[in-house]
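Tutorial, part two.
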Amino acid sequence: MLSGILTAMPAELPWWQRIPFGTTAWRLSMGRRQVVESANAALKGTFADLNRGFFRVFGQTKMTLLLGFTAAGYNSDRIRGFRTKQRAMAEAKPKQSKRRRGTWQDIVEPTATPTEGTGAPPG
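Running the prediction step on this input gives:
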């Protein structure tokens, strides 16, 4: 079990993590990474299969152009899916119930009877 102070030599500093684990900045950074990794996974299998042999053209310029169109198609698919989800959520919102009028005392206490203000005994 380690206890005490750990020191690092200046030569080891490039190995240190730039953003400390568990901080808000680290969570934001990992969120961005997850988005990128899911897009890469979709381009490698779900949306398109970019493995070797997907493009049957030769030349880096043609490959780059076709990959650009593939990425644009993926982006438009994601945008369409996002808009569809937003419309479905807007349509599925429950209707808000009508707001009650008055105060808690108006609801709990019975309303005044006409005989209360005249000084006559009730009953």
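DSSP finds three helices and no strands in the chain. In part three we will examine how such features are distributed along the chain.
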